């Protein structure tokens, strides 16, 4: 029987928001939902600032003749409603962020709500006003940097059509232009003036958008390459120790996964470096890294754990399957064609230690078990596969 947990207090929400800011200092490294939280907070602040301007007009009778006072009173209430709606979306972004449907749909919902709330005020102050145009370009560029294109353009296209239709209807007298202000009837009803503004504005916006898209694509490709390089061991082209730890931490958070850890160490690797040179040692590591990737499934993980050690993370794998995989890799390493500078074959073997998922042990505890099994394989003569068992802890000491 499950029970519903009590709703979090405002103090708890504030603590979680503070933790997010401290934990992910670089905004570009935030996940999409955390970026949505930032956007929602800024949206609330924007509507609050607009409310203060409208309240200022309402409290100063000398300005009533220049504004539509009745509309301003309505918009104060509407701004308050938008603040409530935007702030209410912060909760699921924080507390439901691990749900698949939240990750998929909530970014679209939050961006749509944010843009919709701004479009209304853009019409009120005039779709061709400097404030509207500068906000449009600024939000477009910032949005494309922070969010995937699909999210940004899904809100950008309908909002652009909305502003275009409002401008068209205002031009033909079907809608008032900038209705929040009391403007002369013919101020923005001149078709030549409106057409000229659109003529000069459109190419500038389009050129800037195209150039920005090109620069953004190049920048994102560069960032992806840098991120990929930071996760890969440059010598073996397998995952590095940092990436392996991240995968283990991910498993620890997910829990209840069926997996196996295989830790392997190249036998007598130091003698290869000493007798044949470090370049042959590097070649041995490269060949082993390539071989391991060829003998594993696409869903499995292989990485250089340190020095001449490699770690295999085998998802959805039983003990028998893990042992079979390790034996296949061991035999393949034994038959690797590694030759010295004179063309003579260099013997190359590896020892393996296996540990499989056991509740309530963490992946890092299983890694310790695999390490004990590996050292038992070393002590038993090397070029062997050993499985961790309870008695392994009292096994033969490694010389």
Automatic annotation (TrEMBL):
InterPro entries with a match to the protein in the record: Diguanylate_Cyclase, GGDEF_dom, Nucleotide_cyclase, Rev_trsase/Diguanyl_cyclase
Name of the featured protein: diguanylate cyclase
Alphabetical GO biological process terms: cell adhesion involved in single-species biofilm formation; negative regulation of bacterial-type flagellum-dependent cell motility
E.C. no: 2.7.7.65
Lineage: superkingdom: Bacteria
GO-annotated molecular function: diguanylate cyclase activity
Swiss-Prot/TrEMBL keywords: Membrane, Transmembrane, Transmembrane helix
Gene Ontology, cellular component aspect: plasma membrane
């Amino acid at each position: 029987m499950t029970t519903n947990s009590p709703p979090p207090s405002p103090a708890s929400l504030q603590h979680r928001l503070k933790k997010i800011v401290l934990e992910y200092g670089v905004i570009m490294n935030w996940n999409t939902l955390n970026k949505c939280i930032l956007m929602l907070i800024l949206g609330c602040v924007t509507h609050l600032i607009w409310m203060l301007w409208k309240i200022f007009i309402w409290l100063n009778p000398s300005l009533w003749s220049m504004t539509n006072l009745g509309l301003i009173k309505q918009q104060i209430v509407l701004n308050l409603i938008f603040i409530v709606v935007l702030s209410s979306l912060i909760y699921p972004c924080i507390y439901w962020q691990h749900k698949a449907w939240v990750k998929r749909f909530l970014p679209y919902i939050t961006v749509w709500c944010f843009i919709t709330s701004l479009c209304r005020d853009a019409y009120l102050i005039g779709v061709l006003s400097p404030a509207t145009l500068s906000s449009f370009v600024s939000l477009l560029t910032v949005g494309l940097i922070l969010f995937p294109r699909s999210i940004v353009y899904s809100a950008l296209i309908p909002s652009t059509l909305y502003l275009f239709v409002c401008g068209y209807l205002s031009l033909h007298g079907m809608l008032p232009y900038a209705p929040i202000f009391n403007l002369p009837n013919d101020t923005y009803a001149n078709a030549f003036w409106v057409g000229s503004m659109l003529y000069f504005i459109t190419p500038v916006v389009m050129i800037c958008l195209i150039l920005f898209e090109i620069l953004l694509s190049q920048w994102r490709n560069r960032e992806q390459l840098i991120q990929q390089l930071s996760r890969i061991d440059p010598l073996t082209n397998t995952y590095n120790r940092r990436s392996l730890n991240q995968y283990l931490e991910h498993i620890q958070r997910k829990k209840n996964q069926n997996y196996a850890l295989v830790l392997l160490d190249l036998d007598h690797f130091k003698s290869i470096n000493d007798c044949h040179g470090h370049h042959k040692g590097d070649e041995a590591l490269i060949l082993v890294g390539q071989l391991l990737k060829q003998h594993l499934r696409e869903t499995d993980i292989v990485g250089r754990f340190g020095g001449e050690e490699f770690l295999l993370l085998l998802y959805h794998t039983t003990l028998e399957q893990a042992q079979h995989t390790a034996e296949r890799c061991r035999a393949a390493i034994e038959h690797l064609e590694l030759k010295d500078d004179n063309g003579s074959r260099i013997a190359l073997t590896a020892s393996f230690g296996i540990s499989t998922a056991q509740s309530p042990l963490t992946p890092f505890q299983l890694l310790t078990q695999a390490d004990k099994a590996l050292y038992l394989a070393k002590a038993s003569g090397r070029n062997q596969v050993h499985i961790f068992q309870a008695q392994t802890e009292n096994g033969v000491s490694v010389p």
